[in-house]
Amino acid sequence: MAMDAAEIERLIQDAIPDARVTIEDLRGDGDHYAALVVSGAFVGKSRVQQHQMVYGALQGRMGTALHALALTTGVPDAASEI
Amino acid sequence: MNENPVYARIRQEIQENPVVLFMKGSPMFPQCGFSAAVVQALGTLGVKFKGIDVLSDPGLRDGIKQFTNWPTIPQLYVGGEFVGGCDIVREMYASGELQQLLEQKGVAFAR
Q1: Domains of chain A: which residue ranges?
Q2: pLDDT tens by residue, B14-69
Q3: Is B79 left (phi over 0), alpha (psi -120 to 50) or beta?
Q4: Number of helices and strands (H, E) in chain B?
Q5: CA-CA-CA-CA torsion for B3, B9, B10, B13, nearest 10 degrees?
Q6: Domain A5-80 falls in which CATH fold?
Q7: pTM of the prediction?
Q8: Hey, are the CB atoms on A52 and B84 less than 8 Å from each other?
Q9: How high is the ipTM of this complex?
Q10: Residues in chain B closer than 8 A to A47 (CB atoms)
Q11: Distance of residue A70 Cα from the nearest chain B Cα, in angstroms
Q12: Residue B72 is nearest to which of A47, A48, A63, comparing CB atoms?
């Protein structure tokens, strides 16, 4: 089971339209990714809530089709200063 | 709707134990790199915690994911509250936030 990086990015952006998504295929095997997701929608949310939004966007694929996605979330610089 | 009976057990574990790690394998023998990373962070801080192996209990393995609304294992609870999985715990450990949280919750650790 593996997933394409473009597919991961598309799912996240469908659910969180302003998200800037950077994905790295850690082993080049289509199964171990690291993703950085930056979105204004994360402002005021806890880290757990931010990750839950991303996992929600992946519609149950996390932990099944997608074995490993090291996730880092953040808010855009301008938003974090507000 | 009847609640998943495993939830009662999860609630009891996280209420009775200040630090609980739902993990794959045991603290001595983690069966997954992500679980091992969290065990290592807690070990470095000298935190006493209860490790619960979800591999030995399929009902718990699914149940904890639904209970927390979190799709992966490990899952760390401190003072009855979900802290995060491997990525968040590592990030919090590196930034010192994990140490702050332990202090807030009155959990002893090595400084």
Answers
A1: 5-80
A2: 999 999 999 999 999 999 999 999 999 999 999 999 999 999 999 999 999 999 99
A3: left
A4: 5, 4
A5: 160
A6: GMP Synthetase; Chain A, domain 3 (3.30.300)
A7: 0.90
A8: no
A9: 0.86
A10: 84, 88, 91-92
A11: 6
A12: A63
